[in-house]
Specification:
Elements (H helix, E strand, L loop, with lengths): L8 E6 L6 H12 L2 E4 H11 L2 H11 L6 H12 L7 E5 L5 H12 L7 E6 L2 H9 L1 E4 L5 E3 L18 E2 L6 H24 L3 E5 L4 H11 L8
Parallel strand pairs: 1-3, 1-4, 2-3, 4-8
Antiparallel strand pairs: 5-6, 5-7
Amino acid sequence: MGARRERGTRLVLLGAPGVGKGTQAAEIAKRVGLAHISTGDLLRAAIRDGSPLGRKVGAIVDRGGLVPDELVGEVMAERLSRPDAADGFLLDGFPRTVAQADLLDRILAERGQALDRVISLEVPEPEIFDRLTGRRSCDRCGAVYHVRYGRPRLDGVCDRCGGELRQRSDDTEPVIRERLRAYREQTTPLIARYQKGGLLLTVDGRGSRDEVFGRIAAGVPGLGSGS
């Protein structure tokens, strides 16, 4: 992992489902030493735990909706209070709405902090459908593969742990269509908000992991210095 930055860097990564947010968030966190905070991971953990909150979240995710602000705000505030976020963080999947952005501003203001940059990854919708409908996830360790590229050595079996590979319930075409509609409806005003505030960096999400990271690093001062 790269060395911690002297000044905490606070980033948000936006983008529709399937644009590669998780891949780029993990790469940035690894190279720069930022805490990678994925709302999706936090909520999926709640679903696996089978708690009342997890059951509510699971029902929403299965039909392609976005989890309401009240179900994520408290979880995110607690996560940002942990020590590893004090030296900077990268938020992946939060905020998704203007209301959540206002909530995040208040959480950070209480700590005397503010965001440094909001990165929006953009990929054409036909490619998003191809990426998501072909994605397969390990039901044991969470590793992700694809039926055409990034295939496992043995069909249907995870290389890492031997678990069974499945298509997630939210990676079917009707659900993807609904997820994209919901993303456009709720997140377009959010992107406009950050653009107006001078925080937005729009990045082409097509190409290799390193190519996309290079575009991000070029637009975030000092980001390419992590190693």
